[in-house]
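SEQUENCE-TO-STRUCTURE ENTRY
===========================
Question of interest: how does this chain fold, as expressed in backbone structure tokens?
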Amino acid sequence: MRVLIADDHPLFLDAARTHLERIFPVCEVAEARSLPDAIHCLRESGPFHLILLDLSMPGMDPSGGVAEAVGVAGAAPVVIFSGMASPDDVWSCVAAGAKGFLPKTLDAAMFAAALNIIMLGGTYVPAEFAASRTAPVAVPANARDLSAREIDVLRMLVTGASNKEIARELNIQEVTVKLHATRIFNKLGVKNRSQAAVMALECGLVSRQG
């Protein structure tokens, strides 16, 4: 797992590196301090599996800068993070090809959940920004039928836990985890783990603290 983090604040770089190494145990992290440095690293030291870019670092902007990074990132998802951003900035980043927007105020659990959603092929935008662009996400009618055990499994799906990890944590068999996951997908009207995780977060079925 190779990750590029670009930010001009050393303290945040150190914190992000620590979080990434916890989320992805086998992780090689490269760092850049500006958009030009990040583009150079992508071209000369790639490929990477994940790219995290600060919205306010030198050379960066919500549209052109993001589009430039996406253009040289290959198949790797580009994720934007920022201490402050307007809804227009967030959606400009998404329109330019970013696969997610992570506020720097996210706690460790939500940071991990968001990255796992993105690495599973989804797009993550916090609910407060999503609400500014679209109507509130409707909770599926069958979601009220989720059992307590299914909620437990869904909570762990949001964190990106594997079936084996869920089975070990909940002290159940892997085949039972698969059965719970299938029932969760059916009740939420989704097809896979990534969609279930996004639905859970957007509809508030799982708390932000997991």
